[in-house]
């Protein structure tokens, strides 16, 4: 039998046709196997990216919520740091009285009104004493304090901005320790830590609300891990032990990656907070995720084995007609193609090589997310971050299926954004915005070629005609249906703007600017409208709003004249509509007016109306003129309710006279005696009245005015420090330097250098 097998093998290899069939069979096996595994790994990568994207999105929402809470807690620390009571408590040369300690405890209690903040403590490192909000109070010795754990984290504390740790604390009368998050902010004087501010954050309230509404078909476990790989918080952990998670994160820094413990394969997604330094991690099993893909891979591999087995059997049984399968394959390949049908063996091999290249090309396209490539290209093009060659090259690579037909730019914007956003938290706003993007992509993508980009709080669409029959009217109709769909599904009103038609990517940026200008005319046209740039008639004369309007409106605020302010605003509205003032002029005027109103309340130590506390300059871009005027009327009405009782008091008027005198005579060497003489009162009386009304001493207020004027001159002029000293009431340069270093923790020269660098950076960003 061996002799027979040897004879058949010799005959087989001596037959050229049989050898060719075996080569073709092996080639098909390799092609199918490579293609199968290529598709398997491509599909696996795409699935992991698709699954990881919402996981990372949810982690980012949670991270931003934690960052906001930590930033709010840090702001409490900053407020304590800037308080005069803190300065007095940490001053080694001053011993606070009992009533001052009581005021300090009450001040700390007021800072813990947020349910997120459990308590606030201030530690005097020099005299080893501590004061805190209720129930801590004042303790002259650390040994009297039940909570001792915090000292483990402050012994070697650096002078960084703040440190945040997860620790256990003891409560008075309880043996069991309670988990808490503590933010430590050092108080630094002359490069030495003289005190420490501690803000204890409720750990359960910080994290539970973030993860309680997360749902996922993949049953993800989520963790928050600090810089030392200590797990700060975990949710739904039934997948992977904590020690394995730390090992996995130490090995990888990518946003998502595979990890296996020898039994199960996991997909781990992670992001890192640049504020807390914590990692937010999601872990899911891939068994269900890759089940179908693995099955397809096994089937393809089985088919590959079957094909080679069939080839071997075919050769053994029918090697005398070896070219019949070759002719059959050639017939199937070329049946529906034009061209010659008499390919020889070499040409057939070339064809299979081309087929492999085509499959590899298709696989590479699957790996890339076209939408992200389009968005990045358009962002760079608008920002001018590409040269002409790169602009052309990337356009032809990323928009291969786009033709030479005309294109349009479209901006879609939510109307009256602050009113729309007020009922929702940040997470709900992000979900609604995500839904608007998907609706826009699906709706317009079914009718036009489309690329979608997010621009601030607007949605930018680049659309191209699918045929010559489509025109601006068709686009307007499709946009109207899209806006109605968004309103019906999401109860959200949006406006749209369309730039001029263009044919080349080089004209895209200009068309975008036109759409942006058209959108600004929402100020006059109102909400849920489609503004087309070509239909906007701009005159050659550009009317503006006189500065006297602003001065008159500020006087109304100072005098609490709501009725006059309302009439002025109504008249201003009529004049703007009549003159059709350019929207940019209107937005600039009202933003400056709102900034001035804000500054009035801040400079005079007055409580702000609720609407000013939430104010964001972006609001005006999304409002029509009627709502803008109504917003200012609301500000004046709320301000009147806050100011009227305050302004009727004699002491308030006296304080305002003192403030006015200080501002007018700031360049003179004035002090408390001169200010008291200007209002006809004694020095002790003006000090008492000013402290009661402004919650700060008269001397501190005068010094702060001088510091603010000094900062303005340092940042905006090239005057010498000695000249600035004379302008702000100091007799010589050294006096100003000492005062500035004391109140700003740096010299005037250092401040001027920082201000110039910041101005240069801002100028660069504006140019880009």
TrEMBL record:
Coiled-coil ranges (or none): 465-492
Lineage: Bacteria, Bacillati, Bacillota, Bacilli, Bacillales
Regions that span the bilayer: 20-40, 299-321
Domain HTH araC/xylS-type: 656-754
Keywords from the named record: Coiled coil, DNA-binding, Membrane, Transcription, Transcription regulation, Transmembrane, Transmembrane helix
Pfam families (alphabetical): GGDEF_2, HTH_18
Name listed for the protein in its UniProt record: AraC family transcriptional regulator
UniProt-listed SUPFAM superfamilies: Homeodomain-like
